[in-house]
TrEMBL record:
Residues 37-261 form the ABC transporter domain. This is Teichoic acids export ATP-binding protein TagH. One of its GO terms (molecular function) is ATP binding. Pfam families: ABC_tran, Wzt_C. Signal peptide: none annotated. Belongs to the ABC transporter superfamily. The keyword ATP-binding applies.
Length: 486
């Protein structure tokens, strides 16, 4: 019996799949490899190898059930795209098997599936035919596809003249308008502009609602938590974790911040959770109680994505200005009860504090902090320049002061940097006594069921009511964001 007949509710079955690539150090080695070993065999000599064997995937197994949305995360080069290509049949595995139950539409790397010489229109027909649609079926959907892609007259131009954004628009429009049973997407969404991305998410939700299966690769932790029912963590060609999006994303983010040995230790700890009989360890890893520096079995870095301290999440771009009268030390973020954290929850209050050691007599000292995105956009901050009563009139050389900013984490999931500084007068000159850019970083943990997007939470509360005589809407009303714990 075929896989389709026996699959039941399994949409994708990947069984012990391995994929190897031959790596040649020099172009001429590829040529040598195709000639020399054959000749050597002919004369009865052992063949020379001119390549290195590289395992992009090793023994990967998992199943995706119908209706599941599964996100694949992992560091660069961990094998995510190779895995998707094997699932879609564009790459043949060296070992293992892949079975797919249903019509699969794929958005793999840019360009895959499109002939650059053909027009957009011709490519739509070509792709739809590959996905099993007849000409008449494609005729019936073409206007929807063209409207969704929204690339105007370019639909009649060869796709080699398209920008990468236009390319993705047309590829996505085609893939999702052929009503696939399974949609496979490789980061393609990040290329379109924001309006197009929203349109795509709306369509993805439609596919989810009608029971479609989605497998996608992304580097966005938020997207995984928001869209997926399950997530897979790939590392060095192996599937090292398969579980709830939050737990998987949390381990992925920790791996990202780790260097070689620490990453290997953390990886081993994650892999250990896959061994049968290791459930307590698996639970601890998922909830973040494994891996704290003071834990005897600490794999280096720990904490869950909800509110914790990840010792590996450190600023790699700190710039300390020359000290001109003071120095800033011991900067950190704590909860109101004094617990050190760098993984924060949106909507909660925290304390940023630091110690200022004065090396010169200073007057009218102002303290400040500001929060920035990792690309340097200042989102907000606080300083005492307009609060004379909070300024330090006079500090003597040798004085030490602790500065505390009690603030609300209005930031949405992502990683942010903090600048701090102290400004004052020394010998009649106003100057930065000390200033540190990107002094520390923190991460805001991903949240499910949120209305918010962007960097700042606007504490939105949504109410939808039927307008007068019209019928009641079918969506839930009075969605109270605060009740969902932003
Ligand atoms: N055709 C190929 N020939 C040789 N090596 C390849 C080939 N395709 C992929 N690889 C290697 O296989 C490994 C996995 O690549 P893959 O693109 O699947 O990783 P990825 O997790 O999708 O990475 P990224 O997040 O950077 O897109 C990488 O080391 C890559 O260099």
């Amino acid at each position: 019996m075929s896989f389709e007949e026996t699959a039941g509710d399994v949409a994708i079955r990947v069984c012990d799949v391995s994929k190897h690539f031959l790596l040649f150090d020099r172009p001429q080695d590829r040529l040598k490899q195709s000639i020399v070993p054959r000749l050597q065999r002919l004369v009865g000599r052992p063949p020379t190898r001119y390549y290195r064997d590289f395992a992009a995937l090793s023994g990967v197994s998992f199943e995706v059930r119908r209706g599941e949305t599964v996100g694949i995360v992992g560091r660069n080069g961990s094998g995510k795209s190779t895995l998707l290509q094997v699932v879609c049949g564009t790459l043949r595995p060296n070992a293992g098997s892949v079975a797919v139950n249903g019509r699969i539409a794929a958005l793999l790397e840019l360009g895959a599936g499109f002939n650059p010489e053909f027009t957009g229109r011709e490519n739509v027909y070509l792709n739809a035919a590959i996905l099993g649609l007849s000409r008449e079926e494609t005729d019936a959907r073409f206007d929807d596809i063209a409207r969704f892609a929204d690339i105007g007259d370019f639909i009649g131009q060869p796709v080699k003249t398209y920008s990468s954004g236009m390319y993705v628009r047309l590829a996505f429009a085609t893939a999702i308008n052929v009503d696939p049973d399974i949609l496979v997407v490789d980061e393609a969404l990040s290329v379109g502009d924001e309006a197009f991305q929203r349109k795509c998410f709306a369509r993805i939700e439609q596919i989810q609602e009608r029971g479609g299966t989605i497998l996608f690769v992304t580097h966005s932790a938020q997207l995984v938590v928001q869209l997926c029912s399950r997530a897979l963590l790939m590392d060095r060609g192996e599937l090292i974790m398969d579980g709830k999006p939050k737990a998987v994303v949390s381990n992925y983010q920790k791996l990202l911040n780790l260097s070689g040995t620490e990453a290997a230790v953390r990886r081993a700890a994650i892999l250990a959770t896959k061994q049968p009989g290791n459930e307590p360890y698996a639970n601890a890893l998922a909830t973040g109680t494994v891996g704290r520096p003071d834990s005897p079995s600490a794999p280096g870095c720990g904490g869950d994505s909800n509110e914790d301290f990840d010792p590996c999440l450190v600023s790699k771009s700190a710039v300390a200005y020359v000290q001109q009268g003071a120095s800033i030390h011991n900067l950190g973020i704590t909860t109101p009860s004094g617990r050190r954290v760098n993984i924060l929850r949106s909507g909660r209050r925290y304390v940023l504090d630091y110690r200022v050691d004065f090396h010169s007599d200073s007057t009218d000292v102002i303290f400040g902090m500001q929060v920035k995105t990792m690309s340097g956009v200042v989102l907000g901050g606080a300083n005492t320049s307009h609060r004379r009563e909070m300024q330090v009139r006079r500090a003597k050389s040798g004085d030490q002061l602790i500065v505390r900013f009690d603030f609300q984490c209005v930031f949405l999931p992502g990683v942010y940097a903090i600048d701090v500084g102290a400004l004052g007068q020394v010998d009649g000159d106003v100057r930065f006594l000390h200033r540190i850019l990107d002094a520390t970083v923190f991460r805001v943990a991903p949240e499910a069921n949120t209305l918010n997007f962007g960097h700042i939470g606007i504490d939105a509360k949504l109410t939808i009511r039927a307008d007068g005589a019209s019928t009641a809407p079918s969506c839930p009303t009075d969605v109270d964001e605060s009740a969902q714990g932003i």
